[in-house]
Structure formats: structure tokens, C-alpha cells
From TrEMBL:
Upper taxonomic lineage: Bacteria, Bacillati, Bacillota, Bacilli, Bacillales
Residue ranges of every copy of the FHA domain listed in the record: 32-95
CDD domains, A to Z: NT_ClassII-CCAase (cd05398)
A Pfam family: PolyA_pol_RNAbd
InterPro entries per the UniProt record, alphabetical: Bact_CCA-adding_enz_type3_sf, CCA-adding_enz_C, FHA_dom, NT_sf, PolA_pol_head_dom, PolyA_RNA-bd
Top EC class of this enzyme: transferase
TM regions (residue ranges): none
Originating organism: Jeotgalicoccus nanhaiensis
Highest taxon of source: Bacteria
Keyword RNA-binding found: yes
EC number annotated for this UniProt entry: 2.7.7.72
Protein name: CCA tRNA nucleotidyltransferase
Molecular function per GO: CCA tRNA nucleotidyltransferase activity
Length: 398
């Protein structure tokens, strides 16, 4: 990562050799200054997009009209963006137009929070006209300029504010929090996908609770998809380690919420995680055997369920223990999936000289269960013997 800045510095040096300016900027400067891991390093410059392209061998145009070019240096991508200021905002989510400028300070002024509005030279010297370092040291999220104006321009910034609270374990300045409370309703202008993306980052942070408290206190909660119908107290009190887990806790408590899940526009995998988790809790409560639980549900699902049932005391202590036993049982299961079974439909039809039908599925399910429970050895001969013993009538019913 130290390396990322070293490689990025080559880009800045090339810009400077050609009489342009170049600085590290944004999240990378913030995270570096905080001593956090940096995964991508952005650069800002007074060179225009065409000029950036002309200076470097390998570039990718990712949004020239907004001033952004990706420069590949030593095989790594760096976003290099021309200093820019933004025009008026009429839709509360994006500027009507952007203008390039020759002044770094103007570029920094359009950025959301002071901690995100610091620039750094190739030699790692800070340029910090909006006192980001001071807020960083006080662990505060503070808008550049007047908070209410900045949230009025772009309502997503309110969610970014609470997301950074959670990620960095920072607080909002009182002016920022007050402005969020006043503008919460403007979240309705923001695309659901962008809201969900911010929420997912928030839930992966280190102080989720502080962010949730502010979401509830400022009433942003009432304007968030899915969450808007959740009781404030319930929301504050629930504990979850991901957005999916948060949804599971609330749907578990009130199944009527299930029908609002679609409003979050989650990816299929995330929806599956939520549904499977709810099914796993139900199975647990219905007393499903530990080995069967372990077999039917993915490890990630069971571990996630284990987290939330403990954090929220959703089930009895007995069931908590039962679930842990299921997680522990997973590595030693006699089967990992159906394809490992030593017999399939054809084996059974041949052995019994019977035609296919619904019985076949039932029979395979029963065999699978017996093998998992350790009552039947998983080889073809044993399975055929078992079937011969257990099949009750000529229809093949067991
Ligand atoms: P991370 O990448 O960890 O999510 P980041 O601060 O790098 O955090 P990005 O979304 O990558 O966030 O944006 C890069 C920079 O662009 C920010 O640091 C900030 O200066 C500016 N920025 C991003 N979104 C906005 C916005 N909605 N309003 C104003 N400035 C913004
Ligand atoms: Mg970033």
C-alpha cells in the first residue's frame, strides 16, 4: 500500500515534469493519514482529460466528460481526475453540469466532507485548506461549507456521512447532524441502488450502532427502502453484522415485512442469504437434527444465523447450542451433497425393477437422510438392501 503511493507518485511526477499539477486526493489521503489500509489511490490534476491521455501510455476513458481517466502505472489502475467544480443541482442528486478549473482549492471545495477534501503531494505533504486534519483528529464528519446546502445539493451525502461514521468510528458535527435531520426527507430523490450500496458499506463498518442511532434519531429511517416501516426502537435495538442480517432480524420478528424486501433491490445472492437464513431459523426452531441442518444449509448461512440469534437473543439457549453443534458437525458429514450418494434414481429403478415416479424422490430423500444420520452406509449394495427392506408395497411406497 505504501507501494501504491510510490507508484502513484510516478504519475504525479510525470504530470509535474510537464508543467501540470498533480495530487493524491480523497479517501486515500484520509485513510493514509488515519493509518488505515488504502486500497485505491486517486489523483487530481489541472491537466485536461486529453492532456492526461497524451502523457501516459496506458489509459482508459471512464468518464472523460466528468474529467476522469484511468492511468495504468506498473499495471495498476489510478483514477486521474481533472480539477473540477460543479454547477447547480436541481435534482438533489447530481450537478446539472461540471466545469474544469485550474485551482486545486476549488476542486476540494466541491467534495463532501473536510476529511475527504485533503490533497497530498507526491512527497506526502498535506494541502488542507478546509481543515480536514483537525476534524480527522477530533474524529468528526463535517461538511465542506454549509451542511444544509451540501445536503440539499446531493442528498446521498447524508448516507455517506453515516456510512463514514460506521466505517471510521467518527461522529457527526452538531451542524452536520442537524442538517441531516432537516433534510432526511430528500433521500427520496436518491436511487435505491445507491442507498443500498451505502447501507451495505455501513454494515461492514466498525461502529454500526452509532450510525444506526443517527439514522433513527434524524428520521432518515423513515425514508430508507424496507426500513421505513420498521419501528424505531426495534431498529435501534437490533444487532446485525450485515445488511442482510439486519433484514433477517426484522423479518423474523414481523413476517409482514417480507413483502417489502424487494424495495431494497438486492442482488440475487443477498436475497438468497436472507431467505435461507430465515428458513434455517425456522428449521432450528422445528427441531431439525443437527446433521440435517448442517447438510441443508451452507456454512455461511449457519454462521450468520448463529451471529444474529446470539446478538439478539432470538431463540432459547438450547437452540443456540443446537445450532453450534450443527456448525461443528459440518466437516464430518457423511455427504456434502446429493451427487455423493452411491445410488441414484436409475440404481433404484433397476434394483426394484420399478418405473420412475414420485416415490423415487421420496425414496432418495429417505436414503439421503439415513446416510447422513449414520444409519446407512453410503455404498450401492447397502443402499439397495435398505431399499428392499423398507419398500412397503408394489407401488414402491416406503
Ligand atoms: P471509499 O472509497 O472508501 O468508499 P472515498 O472517500 O474514496 O471512500 P469515493 O466514493 O470513492 O469515496 O469518492 C472519492 C472522493 O470523491 C471522496 O473522498 C470525496 O472527496 C468525493 N466524493 C465522492 N462522493 C461525493 C459526493 N456525493 N459529494 C461530494 N464529494 C464526493
Ligand atoms: Mg474511493
Amino acid at each position: 500500500e505504501q507501494n501504491l503511493f510510490k507508484i502513484g507518485a510516478k504519475i504525479i511526477e510525470r504530470l509535474e515534469e510537464n508543467n501540470y499539477e498533480g495530487y493524491f486526493v480523497g479517501g486515500a489521503v484520509r485513510d493514509y493519514t488515519l493509518g488505515r489500509a488504502v486500497s485505491d489511490v486517486d489523483i487530481t490534476t489541472n491537466a485536461l482529460p486529453d492532456e492526461i491521455e497524451a502523457l501516459f501510455d496506458k489509459t482508459i476513458d471512464v468518464g472523460k466528460e466528468h474529467g476522469t481517466i484511468i492511468v495504468l502505472m506498473d499495471g495498476l489502475p489510478f483514477e486521474v481526475t481533472t480539477y473540477r467544480v460543479e454547477g447547480t443541482y436541481t435534482d438533489h442528486r447530481r450537478p446539472d453540469n461540471v466545469f474544469f478549473t485550474q485551482h486545486l482549492k476549488e476542486d476540494l471545495s466541491r467534495r463532501d466532507f473536510t476529511i475527504n477534501a485533503m490533497a497530498m503531494t507526491a512527497d506526502m505533504d498535506l494541502y488542507d485548506p478546509y481543515n480536514g486534519l483537525k476534524d480527522l483528529k477530533s474524529r468528526l464528519i463535517n461538511t465542506v461549507g454549509t451542511a444544509s446546502e451540501r445536503f440539499d445539493e446531493d442528498a446521498l451525502r447524508m448516507l455517506r456521512a453515516v456510512r463514514f461514521m460506521s466505517q471510521l468510528n467518527f461522529k457527526l458535527t452538531s451542524e452536520t447532524e442537524k442538517a441531516v435531520a432537516e433534510h432526511a426527507g430528500m433521500l427520496r430523490y436518491i436511487a435505491v441502488e445507491r442507498i443500498t450500496a451505502e447501507l451495505r458499506k455501513l454494515y461492514r463498518g466498525i461502529n454500526v450502532q452509532s450510525a444506526k442511532d443517527v439514522i433513527a434519531k434524524t428520521d432518515m429511517l423513515s425514508y430508507l427502502p424496507f426500513f421505513q416501516s420498521i419501528d424505531k426502537e426495534q431498529y435501534i435495538q437490533s444487532r446485525a453484522l450485515s445488511l442482510e442480517q439486519e433484514a433477517v432480524v426484522h423479518i423474523y420478528r414481523d413476517s409482514a415485512l417480507q413483502k417489502h424486501l424487494g424495495t431494497l433491490k438486492l442482488a440475487n445472492r443477498q436475497k438468497t442469504v436472507i431467505k435461507e437464513s430465515l428458513k434455517a431459523i425456522e428449521a432450528l426452531e422445528n427441531g431439525m437434527n443437527t446433521k440435517l441442518l448442517a447438510y441443508r444449509y451452507e456454512e455461511d448461512i449457519l454462521i450468520g444465523v448463529n451471529d444474529i440469534i446470539k446478538l439478539n437473543a432470538l431463540v432459547s439457549a438450547d437452540l443456540e447450542v443446537h445450532l453450534e453443534a450443527a456448525i461443528d458437525a459440518r466437516p464430518q458429514l457423511a455427504l456434502k451433497n446429493r451427487s455423493e450418494l452411491a445410488a441414484d434414481g436409475n440404481t433404484l429403478m433397476t434394483a426394484l425393477n420399478a418405473k420412475g415416479g414420485p416415490w423415487l424422490r421420496e425414496c432418495l430423500n429417505a436414503i439421503e437422510e439415513e446416510v447422513l444420520l449414520g444409519n446407512l452406509i453410503n455404498n450401492e449394495k447397502e443402499i439397495v438392501n435398505w431399499v428392499n427392506l423398507h419398500v412397503k408395497n408394489e407401488d414402491g411406497n416406503i
